[in-house]
Specification:
Uracil-DNA Glycosylase, subunit E, two-stranded antiparallel sheet, 11 helices, globular, binds uracil
Length: 261
């Protein structure tokens, strides 16, 4: 008999692996016979078999309505490598209560990346960012406000990849432990525009405490990429005023102008 604790750990690793496959564009899990032929990926806490001989990027069809930027993105240093390096992360205490690592989702070649704060209960359960109430609001902003396709035109991730218990704010050490992976993610995608959703994302990317009410709607720079600051969709839901909705709409129109330039 496998002890309960070991069983729980194995189940969590299996779940993370299945989410990883789904993020990589797989629609089925490989059979045993297929697994034996596949390369083995070592992770900090065990061994995963990768069913994907193709890099993640090659499985996605870039389908952007925006003109090609003509830049030379290094697709070999792609998101798959960053996800593999993250492994079954135990680098901070958030690993203790999480169900699933929420790495990010969307088009790894997107021109537009949204960065939120951290997974909530729905995201933790599904392994995908922004799938709860705030996620629905974000999808509405993207699809109705910007007339873009969330899955094809954007990539979405968070400053921390594991749910802070009780949806508390991520603590400094947790943000610091996760930040290298956020930076690598953003560098792997190298979008034309990054949008920081809310104060924690803005402050993490800019390395200072950002007064979001004062600075939303302003352009900044992150590692050579344009960075726009706006309100978090959860804040919009809490303070659902015409003024706040208009502010986010205006910020997103500024983003569209740059994307279309
Ligand atoms: N809020 C966030 O900041 N990120 C999510 O993924 C969901 C809600």
């Amino acid at each position: 008999m496998v002890p309960d604790t070991e069983r729980a750990l194995l189940l969590q690793q299996l779940k993370n692996y299945l989410v990883f496959l789904r993020e990589s564009g797989h629609t089925h899990a490989p059979l045993n016979s297929e697994l034996s032929e596949l390369p083995v990926i070592a992770t900090p806490s065990g061994t995963f078999h990768d069913s994907s001989p193709q890099p993640l990027e090659s499985q996605m069809t870039p389908n952007s309505p925006f003109p090609e930027s003509g830049d030379n993105r290094d697709l070999s240093a792609g998101l798959t490598d960053v996800r593999e390096e993250l492994g079954d992360c135990q680098r901070c205490k958030l690993c203790e209560a999480r169900q699933t690592i929420v790495f990010g989702s969307g088009n790894p070649n997107a021109d537009l990346v949204f960065v939120g704060e951290g997974p909530g209960a729905d995201e933790d359960a599904q392994g995908l960012p922004f799938v709860g109430r705030a996620g629905k609001k974000l999808t509405e902003i993207i699809e109705k406000g910007m007339l873009l396709d969330r899955g094809k035109d954007t990539y979405i991730c968070n400053i921390v990849k594991c749910r802070p218990p009780g949806n508390r704010d991520p603590e400094k050490d947790e943000v610091e432990a996760c930040k290298p992976f956020l930076i690598k993610q953003l560098k792997a995608i190298r979008p034309k525009v990054i949008v920081a959703l809310g104060k924690p994302a803005a402050s993490t990317l800019l390395g200072r405490t950002v007064p979001i009410t004062k600075e939303r709607g302003t352009w900044h720079e992150f590692e050579g990429m344009k960075l726009m600051l706006t309100y978090h969709p959860a804040y919009l839901l809490r303070a659902y005023t015409k003024e706040n909705r208009q502010a986010v709409y205006d910020d997103m129109q500024k983003v569209l102008e740059v994307l279309k330039a």
